[in-house]
Write a structure and sequence with these properties.
The chain has about 100 residues and is of the alpha+beta class. It is about 35% helix and about 35% strand. The model has no long low-confidence stretch (mean pLDDT about 90).
Length: about 100
Amino acid sequence: MQMLAKVFPIKLKDGNQAAAEAIVQEFGPMGPGAEEGTLSFRVYRDPATPDYLLFVEHFADQAAYDAHTGSSAYKELIAGRFADLIVEFVEVDHELLVSL
């Protein structure tokens, strides 16, 4: 099974945890929840680290990821409103090795 996994550790601007989480909650059903090639979309917070989120996303392939980032919901909510709340993020690609 071929799959593309994307991991994004994201440092938010101070005091923006709640606003960022609200955007992610809004985005989930509009973006990833409605996309055929998005296999999973998970966002984690660390209770010990304020103003930080970890995105872990799985896509059928690169084309599915490209469709995801090209969607109107992504452009409005993530590339638009969410982007204004972040200090930095790192994009790390992973390929599936084992799946049980």
